[in-house]
Amino acid sequence: MTLNIVRNILDLRKETAGWRAEGLTYAVVPTMGALHQGHITLVKEGLKHADRVLTTIFVNPKQFAAHEDLGRYPRTEAADVAMLAEAGAHLVFAPAPEDIYPPGFATSVVMAGPAKVGLEDKYRPQFFDGVATVVAKLFTQSGADFAMFGEKDYQQLMVVTRMARDLDLPIKVIGVPTVREESGLALSSRNAYLSKTEHHQAAGLHQRLVNAARKINAGQKPSRATAAARRSLALLGFKVDYVAARNAETLALPKSPDEPLRLLAAAWLGTTRLIDNIAV
C-alpha cells in the first residue's frame, strides 16, 4: 500500500476533512521519526480506537537544548514510511520546521504541574515547554479524536495529558505500555547510539527498577529502594541522573503508603542517555 505523505497544514486538513465528511474517527501518533516497534505498537493501538491513524514525523527543535543531539538525531523517513504502511497507518504528516514555526512565531505553552517535579525537567529545563507547544499545535492542526503516547516517556505522557485537559482540547490522550526487548531494555530511537557492549549493559536499568519495585512491594521504604538502585547502577557503569518513586498520577513525592507509585529513572551509558519507568 502506498502511504500518502503531506507536508503542510493545508493539505493535512484537506485529508482529515475528508475523513470527517465520511463520519470516520481518527487517532494521531506524534513521533520524531527513527521509528521502531514501540511506535508501530502505538499505530496498532490507534487502529483499535479509531477508523484511521495519522502519524506525524517531526524532529522538534524547541525541545532540544543547544548542547543536545538535534543535529545527529536519526532521520530515516523512507524506512519510517515503509514501516507505517505495513502497520496500517493511513497518513503521514511530515512538515518542515518553518511550517510548524513560521517566521515571527512567538507563542509557547509553559507548563507547571507534572512538568515541574524535579525529574526530566531538572536536567532538561526547556524540554516540556517545547513538547507541550508542538503537541498542542499537532492536536489542533490534526483535529484528531485520540492521541497515542508511549508510557516509556512517562513524565511526557503526564504533561501532554495535563496540557490537553487544561486547554480543553477535544482529544483523548491514551497511554500505551512500553515495548521492550527480551532483556527488558525499553525500545528507543536513541538505542542506536549504544555500542554493542553498552547495549548489553543497558538492560541493567530496567532490571534495577524491577528490583526496587519488588523491595517496595515487600515493605521497604521507597527512598531506601531507590537509593540502592542508584548505587547498583553506578557500579554497573551508569552515570545516574535520577531514580525516583513518585505518585503515578501527579508525579509528586509520595505522602502516603497507599498511593499508587511509579518508579522513574534516567541514566547515561557512555554518551547515551536512557530513561525508563515501571509501575510499583
UniProtKB/TrEMBL annotation:
<keyword id="KW-0436">Ligase</keyword>
<protein>
    <submittedName>
        <fullName>Pantoate--beta-alanine ligase</fullName>
        <ecNumber>6.3.2.1</ecNumber>
    </submittedName>
</protein>
